[in-house]
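Section 3.1: Structural characterization of target chains.
Under the original work plan, the team committed to producing a structural model for every single-chain target entering the pipeline before any wet-lab resources were allocated. The record below documents one such target. The sequence was received from the expression subgroup and is listed exactly as submitted; it comprises 555 residues.
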Amino acid sequence: MKKKIVASLLSVVMVASLAACGSSSTETTTSTTDTQTQTETTTETKTETAETTEATSDTATETAAADIDTSEHVKITYMTTGGKPTNGATEEMLEQLNAILTEKVNAELEIYYIDWTDYLSVYNLTLAQMDGTVDLVGTATDWLDAWPNAKNGAFLALSEEMLQTYCPQTYASVSQEHWDLCKYDGEIYLIPEDNYAQWTNHGFAYRLDWAKEAGLTDGVKSWEDLTEYFKYVKEAYPDITPWDSDGTQYATMVGGWITSHSDYVSIDGLNSGAMWGGTKDDLYTIYSPYMTDTESLVEFAELMKQWDEIGVWKTDVLNNTVSQNRDDYRIGRVAAEQHHTQTWTDLCSATESNTIYQDDEDAETGFFYFGEETGNVVALSITHGAMAVSAASANPERALMVYDLIRNDEDCYRLFNYGIQGKQWDVNEEGLRIQPETYNSDTDAITTNFWWGRNDDLEIKDATKNWDAIDALYAEYDSIKIDYPYGQFIPDVDNIQSMINNISEIHTNYMKQIAFGKYLGTAEEIVAEYQAALQAAGIDEVTAELQRQVDELYK
């Protein structure tokens, strides 16, 4: 039996990895009345799964509940990351939800919030106390220490019989292949969010109308096109900053370049630079393109020097701590925003805050995604968002029953994710979700941060979004993407952590210079200096150790 390697990564590495995905406290505390959140799982909705779920929907829960002793009313506590709301709207929603939960499974739900301040330490400490404080636990394998917590006994092993009995709709909707990806040491510990389409691969949102003016009739499709676009903006719109970067996107930039010019597939979580992985054709032969793809890195360094000379960003980019580039894009002050696809789905839509569409009827927002030239797109792990049950829960069976309802019951799902119909949301004539005229985000927004079981079968599309553009891009992704292949690989880094730390520091120091064209000498010289420093720090030894562990798990 192949050995599964699971060990706790240092919290600082996990936090750095999350930051590399471009998250911010503003985004992650977004109310779940907006389906655009920091934690986003990428899967395609499967017709067969939807049909199975629909067929077993109410009857499965009613049958299970009828055979289970629910005579004692219990309280189930759901733990999630994010700040606790203070406007009272969430509590009002929970009153209605709990009336349904009481009727169906004689339970009520309360939410335990882990504030974003030092969230990972507080989250792990809460679980480690094992005092029964929480029952359902929102978790993730790539940013919330799911595997280390499973290994350390914080999560309850969920047998298939237990899932079939107490969580029947969810059990039926998740494929056996996906359940297998939720196992540690042969036991299921996680319930995956595997039926919710959301993309967090990065790229550049840009003014498509301006790109067409520049002669790019099909929009920006390559880094070369992007360069031509930036040149045009500087010439045609001299008062516009092409991209007011705050200087922190160096790792995403070079990672995007490598993705766009190779078939590299990175392993998440090792460091913020995602510096090790395999290729689409050979996933389990581990290498670091930062050591092997020298010619490509030189080309990147040369292009970034060119962008610096064009004036793509401000001259003080490395010290720019006040940039509000995304907000400035919304109102037409900049020409591009570098972030992930889900951010673009908002920027391309004529929402109230995106005044560019009010000011210019020709305004359009395109998206150049990293990997577009090579068709290199990797979906997030299905356990980027997942639900677990605390091993200290006094009522694990009832907790699963509550989760099954929240994930699959239409009334419960929409209450928990959108709020009260008529107050937080409503549906227009086209069947799209809108906010009532009386809605006030300060007083009416709910916050449940349910990033661990969203379900496309029950989602209602947001009327403010540009679904023609979004659906077209999602279909393109689905046609070329591969599933994340390293979902069960959490390396044992105890003996190589110091080298990884040194490598990460070197990567940061050099890539800040390279990715913004602020280096001295030639591109060849700075890349050679960078690679020599990586080698001296032990990158070859780290690669060899990762290969040994990958061989143990996958070969």
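Residues 129 and 359 are 55 Å apart (CA to CA).
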